[in-house]
Amino acid sequence: xxxxEVGFNALFRPKNVAVVGxxxxxxxxxxxxxxxxxxxxxxxxxxxxNPYESVVxxxxxxxxxTSISGDIDLVVLTVPANTAVEVLRECExxxxxxxxxxxxxxxxxxxxxxxxQNEISEIGKRSGxxxxxxxxxxxxxxxxxxxxxxxxxxxxxxxxAMVSQSGTLGMVLMDSISKNGAGFTKFVSSGNEAVxxxxxxxxxxxxxxEAGVVVAFIEGVRDGRRFIDVARxxxxxxxxxxxxxxxxxxxSEAARSHTSSIAGSIQVFRAVAKQTGIVLAENSDELVDYAxxxxxxxxxxxxxxxxxxxAGGWAVLTADACEEYGLEVPPLPAGVVxxxxxxxxxxxxxxxxxxxxxxxxxxxFKFCGEILFEENxxxxxxxxxxxxxxxxxxxxxxKVPIFSEEEIETFKKGSRWFMKALAESASSINEKYxxxxxxxxxxxxxxxxxxxxxxxxxxxxxxAVKCIAKMVEYREYQERIGExxx
Length: 486
Fold this sequence. Notes:
Elements lengths: L2 H10 L3 E5 L8 H11 L5 E5 L5 E2 L2 E2 L13 E4 L3 H14 L3 E4 L10 H16 L2 E3 L5 E4 L4 E4 L7 E8 L2 H13 L4 E6 L8 H9 L6 E6 L5 H12 L4 E5 L4 H11 L6 H11 L2 E3 L2 H13 L8 E5 L2 H13 L9 H8 L12 E2 L6 H13 L5 E5 L20 H29 L3 E4 L3 H7 L6 E2 L2 H25 L1
Parallel strand pairs: 1-2, 1-5, 5-6, 6-7, 10-11, 10-12, 12-13, 13-14, 15-16, 15-17, 17-18, 18-19
Antiparallel strand pairs: 3-4, 8-9, 8-11
Helix pairs in contact: 3-4, 5-10, 6-7, 10-16, 11-16, 13-14, 14-15
């Protein structure tokens, strides 16, 4: 194992962690960070460091780094900037392999802070220590059972590896993606990037077998040439989804004061994204949608979309969105129309989108979805059913005296059962064919049923269709570079 691998292993899968500035006061960063590590059930040794305490959060506490016997894999610094650099020098002498500097007050404030950050850079170059930050939120690693983050968070475990130049927004995005049912293997808040840069994390993720999808929130790129090279290598193996902040003058100035980033031209970044296969999100909602779809769905083999609906208007909007984003809604062959007509009510649409109107026949929905894949008519199946929360739609019936409580409860149970069964049919088709199946609805029962499945749920057709289009574009990019390499 080379020095590079040793350092990143110490960062993401440390055998032990020291928290400098650990405190019994949760309101202090050192207290919150140590509490997060404990709540994440870290399995290695934990060394709180605080010269004024003998016990912190029930753990034996050390006055300084040098008083800890044996090797230290990871140190988390939560003390003021001046002290943090002094402790970092101790870490260098001790041979610490990796360090997270949560403390702010460095280059982003200029003056003395910039000098202190320059010293951090020099220590990193000399020692080879993997240093995250300063001015960051911390690091999460599922396989390392590590939640070395200054704010409590418990994301779903999964295949997404993320790096964010904004700690707070990175945490918000991680939480939103988790609530969509996707999950994380790693998260890094990179902060001011005194030593480890954005490109270092991306390069590591590109060869990390635990990372299936890579996500980044980017304020600025410090080394354009290297970024392009790393992005190309990354996207040749796995999807790389990014959002670029600092698009405007105000945003660029905010980025510079936030993490000392040079934002750069958004037009140039868009061109780079197109050339290198980066899936570029225009806003945070798109990033959450794209990350969820790529993390849950296999890539589609083509652009053909089958739409399965129980409401004509919802189906029309979905078909419009598909055509707008360059996807195909192929016609149904006569033989398939005939097979569906044998089972469906006479008033079904007789075309794709397949609108079964008000049918409550779960087996019919499943049959229609399966025949589209069986006959190789489509590459992606999109359920578009109910534009409101159908599972709660009967609550208002209690205001109608003619209905008994028992009748109302029967309506409720029936609606919940139907939407749950419909969601399960989508998941069943996905599992049977191994092809992308997405669901468009605002129904809570569907959302809850599919949250931990391979079927992502979206609140509108346009959101789902944008995800499909991005997946198709990325698959076609991979095909092009594959042909070019032959």
